[in-house]
Specification:
The complex is a heterodimer. By secondary structure, chain A is of the alpha+beta class. Chain A is about 45% helix and about 20% strand. A five-stranded antiparallel β-sheet of chain A has the order 2-1-5-4-3, sandwiched between helices. Classes of the chains: A alpha+beta, B alpha/beta. The interface between A and B is medium-sized, with 29 and 23 residues.
């Protein structure tokens, strides 16, 4: 500021200064013009003006300010110039170039004396591009909004469809679990009563055939129960109920249930429980289903040797291993093992009857309970299935989707 | 006097099966095909045991058990829920609504009676062993 002040202090420097200002005007990269107040004639234009508007300096100096404006704005700009004082931002207007192109501009102007005449000097900023970009942006925004609205509506419909499909699925499952089981229960019950001889003695062949009918019906019921379990899991409708229970007691129950089958095959069925194993907080019924399935499989697929169930705790997890000396599983079959409907060797499925759903259900149940099931195996030597379940289940196990009401 | 058992069951075949089995085992059987009928029969006939199906039309077994329990004269009558529900929590739900025991279908004719008696008081077990 001090330097500038000094600059204006001598007359010589003042002349020098005028030259400077002329230079600033002429060489300004923005178009500039000077117009006389009242007559509105252009008194001066800079190089940027002539090159931007396409007029020569002489042509420009023959124009009045409103001549630059399109017809609808001429009157308004003339009126505006009469009202402007000192510094002013004139706002957005349109100008017509010599070639007829219309541009959008904004202008800043200031009043001063130009060669003894009351005039205003204006700096013009061509904002045509900016306005175009803004309009484009606005168009995109509106388009986007429309798209979002459209998509939201589509999603709304999809959501409703999904929800109604979900309700249908639940209703289907509930109906199926009741409707499929009821006649089966009847078949199993009546064959049982007949086999008991209540309705009169049976001869050997009748007893044999009725026994087969009953075994088939039981197998069908297992299949129905497994399919319903899988469906419930897949539909996210399996609900677990957590409470603390005696895990060694559960293991002993499972061993007692399988013992007859093991004895029939002359297998050594062992249970080893570490001292650290006690109470487990989980879904007792589902845990029993998992362990029963694994021990049952082990006995089913082992023809000689032993099945050993060993359980220990690492303070965080309860780890149960079910080891057998059975047929084992080939490496390439390992992946298939836990997929629904995939008893690995379909050819022997008749020897080893089962639904092929047990392992897949067990793994999903274990996962639902926050645990895992893994397998190691060597064909011909045997397999080891390892179930790891968290000792304490926290609230993270809340149900997804609610219970099935089976009526 | 024979032990009197009321069966509340809507399915004709299940009703026949349970009735047949229980009569063969020397019990007196009363039948009701819905909850309302069941409660009325229970009040009028005072059975020693009630076998209650859970999947009943209109009024489900849980409500029936609750309503039976609301009557002073039936407060002590053992109610055994018989159901093919196989969902966790069903057993708890049945016991909460007032059932004494819970047997899952399909029933096993070889063990059904013993299963049932495992829920019953000593007095009934004695009456079964030494019918008066």
């Amino acid at each position: 500021m001090k330097r500038a002040f000094k600059f204006f202090s001598s007359r010589k420097r003042s002349e020098n200064c005028e030259e400077h200002y002329r230079y600033l005007f002429e060489q300004n990269p923005l178009p500039m013009l000077v117009y006389e107040l009242g007559s509105l004639f252009l008194l001066a234009v800079n190089d940027a003006f002539t090159s931007h508007y396409g007029y020569t300096k002489d042509e420009a100096l023959a124009l009045k300010l409103p001549d630059l404006y399109p017809e609808p704005e001429k009157k308004a700009i003339a009126e505006l110039t009469a009202r402007l004082h000192g510094h002013a931002y004139a706002g957005e207007w349109h100008h017509i170039k010599k070639d007829g192109t219309q541009i959008t501009i904004e202008a800043y102007s200031h009043q001063f004396m130009y060669n003894g005449r009351a005039a205003r000097i204006a700096v013009i900023n061509d904002i045509t591009e900016r306005k175009r970009a803004e309009a484009e942006l606005e168009r995109y925004r509106l388009h986007l909004e429309a798209m979002v609205r459209e998509r939201t509506a589509e999603l709304e419909i999809a959501k409703e469809n999904a929800e109604s499909a979900d309700r249908l699925k639940s209703a289907f499952l509930a109906t199926m679990s009741h409707e499929l089981r009821t006649p089966l229960n009847s078949i199993i019950g009546f064959t049982g009563i007949l086999l008991k001889g209540f309705a009169g003695p049976l001869n050997e062949e009748q007893a044999k055939q009725l026994g087969m009918a009953k075994a088939s019906a039981m197998h069908l019921l297992d299949l129905v129960n497994d399919v319903l379990d899988i469906s419930k899991i897949e539909a996210g409708r399996l609900v677990v109920s957590l409470k603390s229970f005696d895990f060694p007691a559960l293991l002993r129950r499972v061993i007692a249930a399988i013992k007859p089958q093991a004895l029939k095959k002359n297998l050594d069925l062992q249970l080893i429980i570490a001292d650290t194993v006690g109470v487990l907080q989980s879904d007792e019924r589902r845990v029993e289903q998992i362990i029963l399935n694994l021990v049952n499989n082990a006995v089913k697929f082992t023809d000689r040797g032993s099945v050993t169930v060993a359980c220990m705790s690492d303070g965080q997890h309860l780890i149960t291993r079910v080891m057998d000396t059975g047929i084992g599983i080939r490496k390439e079959d390992m992946d298939k093992l836990f997929k629904p409907f995939s008893q690995v060797v379909t050819g022997i499925a008749r020897d080893h009857d089962g639904t092929g759903l047990g392992l897949s259900i067990s793994r999903k149940l274990a996962e639902k309970l926050g645990g895992t099931i893994t397998v190691e195996s060597e064909p011909g030597k045997g397999s080891t299935f390892t179930v790891s379940l968290p000792l304490f289940n926290r609230t993270t196990l809340s149900s997804a989707g609610g219970d099935i009401h089976e009526n | 006097m024979k032990i009197k058992i009321l069966i509340i069951e809507d399915n004709e075949m299940n009703m026949y099966m349970l009735t047949y089995l229980l009569q063969k085992e020397q019990f007196d059987v009363l039948q009701a095909y819905n909850g309302k009928d069941g409660i009325e029969t229970a009040l009028a006939q005072r059975p020693d045991i009630i076998l209650l199906d859970i999947q009943l039309p209109i009024m489900d077994g849980y409500s029936v058990a609750e309503k039976i329990r609301a009557h002073e004269i039936l407060k002590q009558t053992p109610i055994i829920a018989v159901t093919s529900f196989a969902m966790p929590g069903d057993r708890e739900k049945a016991l909460e609504s007032g059932a004494t025991g819970y047997i899952e279908k399909p029933i096993n004719p070889d063990t059904f009676i013993n299963q049932m008696f495992s829920f019953l008081p000593a007095e009934l077990i004695q009456r079964r062993e030494k019918p008066l």
